Q: What sequence folds into this?
């Protein structure tokens, strides 16, 4: 992730830190998705479950839900 952001040199310790932070973040998101899944008695996690889980955590993804989707905008 840092390399994609333009960082040229990275300390060796950052890999374990990033791995731990990403694991914690994803565990929270998956946990929230499972709560939504159980609530609607489903078997498959949908995009809507993930969108709601991210929104609940304060990290919404714009353009996927009805509040932020603009169908008149042209795709490139």
A:
């Amino acid at each position: 992730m840092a390399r994609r952001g333009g960082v040229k040199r990275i300390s060796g310790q950052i890999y374990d830190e990033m791995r731990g932070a990403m694991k914690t973040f994803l565990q929270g998101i998956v946990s929230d998705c499972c709560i939504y899944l159980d609530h609607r008695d489903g078997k498959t996690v949908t995009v809507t479950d993930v969108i709601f889980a991210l929104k609940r955590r304060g990290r919404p993804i714009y353009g996927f839900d009805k509040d932020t989707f603009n169908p008149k905008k042209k795709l490139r």
